[in-house]
Design a protein that fits this description.
Structural class: mainly alpha
Helix content: 55-70%
Strand order of the largest sheet: 1-2
Strand content: under 5%
Number of strands: 4
Largest sheet: 2 strands, antiparallel
Distance between the termini: 90 Å
Shape: elongated
């Protein structure tokens, strides 16, 4: 160890003597930290660095990265404790040489481009180790290493006129770390406030509003993310936008402007390559041999795709979808396969986020762009609907199914398939009604409710075939009025029964007994529970009372003579008798305006 320390001290003296005319104190301090650590004995590496550094050549230093920096960043599957010292020392050397050279040239050396590709790969490899982080020290280590890598890229951007292809790759990398945190509510802000009465085929007068939010889903947060990493990402974005000759003072959203300048289609292609790891990387390059490319499709990759191990690849997709405007013509063929892969993936949050991204693309893009992908979308969603057990993921799959058949209303068979599948799924969970109330709420809110509303507006009584099994599922749910979630469920189920009554009107008379009795029982239970309710729960209870009155009046329109006979029974208390009078009044109002309603 004494010999090692002596050699390290000699290296420091040599470097100090070489730069005694132009001292770089930060560089010397970093070298001291690197060489004084007794756990670091790779002096041969440092000798090579010193030799390359003395040549005062950025291109020579770029070649040095692949051989003498990248191999020492990781120790097994975890980040090496000396990685930060290595990267900072390299960063300082690179900065020192780029400021001395006139690097504003038209053609960038291949060694610089190779180093950028290597840096991008190393960033993903290092961030993969976040799953193994246990202490705050390790998290700080990862943040510092990532910051140094991004600053190295920023230094190169400031020093060289990089080609647009490489700039696109850098932009794709930065999208993986851009803020804010990607989530379903960020992609679809409308999910925060869904007015369920918008899905009612016969609206109430006066109109009511009931806002229910779909649960937010977000990708795993970077536990190591701090202000240092945030500054490094901002520095890279600014260097990138300046390299493209954009006036940064007039840019409101730098990532969006960068993607627009580089071309949305070009960035989408790069994101697809990054997501599926299609980009080939050089292994060993020498002056006397041609570069070789490894085959990326391996057994391990098929079993565990990189986008599941390195979820920052998914962040790039979601951030890109968030930045998209209406210029989606060229990006759809590259983004849809990613959505399909996520929907067919695990864990459930990836399924939910993939479904959300698909809904966003369907929402902002013209219908014509999806004509070649209709069958593929239906196939993926059908499989996901059958195989997904997680309630949150299932909610978002239902949302995608509903959006798909809304965009393509001619797919009647698929709409019916989705509806029947959801009814069967709910029927299988009825025995665990109290445990599955949140699942029922999600399915009704994003799936079955909107699907029934779409079919109720058709003129061919499309719901006739499924009315019986649908009623067998929906009517028992009216009894689930416990707590706030149960009352929300009652509201969406009441709207579903209204739509079912309208869409399957030819056969509703055969089910009049159970429909009217369950609606009256729903009102009675809610009326009895009202005195004990407080706050938001009381407001929901009042809406259940109003909506059940409206639903009963609608049922009288389509359930025939038997429904009216039930209403004439006089063995009710005074409150129920008053409720029946209100129902009859609403029924007369609906009957008067029936032509305008239907």
């Amino acid at each position: 160890m004494h010999a090692v320390k002596s050699e390290a001290q000699q290296l420091i003296r040599d470097l100090t003597a070489f730069y005694e005319q132009q001292p770089n104190k930060r560089l010397f301090d970093q070298l001291h930290l690197l060489l004084d650590d007794e756990s670091w004995t790779e002096l041969e590496v440092t000798k090579i660095w010193l030799k390359e550094f003395q040549q005062q050549s950025v291109t020579s230093l770029a070649v040095c990265y692949s051989h003498n920096v990248s191999p020492y960043l990781m120790k097994g599957d975890k980040i090496h404790v000396q990685s930060v010292s290595l990267l900072r020392f390299y960063q300082l050397m690179l900065h020192q040489l780029t400021t001395q050279e006139n690097t504003q040239i038209q053609q960038v050396p291949k060694s610089i481009l190779t180093m950028i590709e290597q840096l991008i790969g190393d960033v993903f490899s290092i961030t993969r180790s976040q799953c193994d982080l246990g202490s705050d020290t390790n998290q700080d280590l990862l943040s510092a290493a990532l910051s140094s890598q991004l600053k190295i890229i920023g230094i190169i951007l400031e020093a060289y006129s990089i080609d647009r292809h490489t700039l696109t790759g850098i932009a794709t990398l930065l999208l993986s770390f851009s803020q804010p945190q990607p989530s379903s509510h960020l992609l679809l802000p409308s999910l925060k406030q869904i007015n369920v009465f918008e899905h009612c085929s016969i609206p109430m007068t006066p109109a009511l509003a009931c806002v229910i939010a779909i649960e937010n889903v977000e990708i795993s947060r970077f536990r190591w993310w701090d202000s240092m990493a945030n500054k490094a990402v901002s520095f890279c974005w600014q260097s990138l936008i300046l390299r493209m000759n954009c006036n940064i003072e007039k840019v409101n959203n730098i990532p969006q402007e960068a993607c627009k300048s580089l071309g949305w289609d070009n960035v989408a292609k790069a994101i697809r390559q990054q997501f599926f790891e299609k980009k080939e990387k050089k292994v060993e390059v020498s002056e006397n041999s041609l570069p070789t490319y490894p085959l990326k499709i391996t057994k391990d990759l098929q079993q565990d795709p990189l986008y599941r191990m390195e979820q920052c690849r998914i962040r790039a997709v979601l951030n890109f979808v968030h930045l998209l405007g209406t210029e989606t013509e060229e990006v759809i063929p590259n983004l849809l396969p990613i959505c399909f892969a996520l929907i067919d993936s695990f864990p459930p949050k990836l399924v939910a986020l993939g479904s959300t991204a698909l809904v966003v693309l369907l929402d902002i893009s013209p219908k014509d762009l999806f004509q070649d992908f209709e069958d593929a979308m239906v196939s993926v969603l059908k499989k996901a609907l059958k195989t997904t057990a997680d309630r949150v993921a299932l909610t978002y799959i239902c949302l995608a199914c509903t959006k798909l058949v809304k965009v393509f209303p001619d797919r009647v068979k698929d709409r019916r398939y989705f509806t029947i599948t959801l009814i069967q799924m709910m029927q299988g969970k009825l025995l665990r009604l109290s445990e599955e109330s949140c699942t029922f709420l999600g399915i009704m809110l994003s799936g079955l409710g909107p699907l029934l509303a779409q079919q109720a507006k058709q003129n061919d009584a499309e719901l006739i075939e499924i009315s019986r099994p649908a009623l067998r599922v929906l009517l028992p749910l009216l009894r689930e009025g416990v707590e706030e979630s149960g009352k929300k469920l009652q509201i969406v189920v009441l709207i579903g029964i209204i739509n079912l009554t309208v869409g399957g009107y030819p056969i509703m008379a055969h089910h009049s007994n159970k429909i009217i009795c369950e609606l009256l029982a729903c009102w009675g239970h809610s009326n009895n529970a009202l005195p004990a309710c407080k706050g938001n729960e009381r407001e929901l209870c009042l809406k259940v009372l109003s909506l059940s009155t409206h639903a009963t009046a609608v049922a009288l329109l389509f359930c025939g003579k038997r429904a009216h006979e039930i209403m004439e029974i006089t063995s009710f208390n005074s409150e129920m008798a008053l409720h029946l009078e209100r129902v009859k009044e609403k029924h007369q109002m609906l009957l008067t305006n029936i032509e305008n309603i239907l």
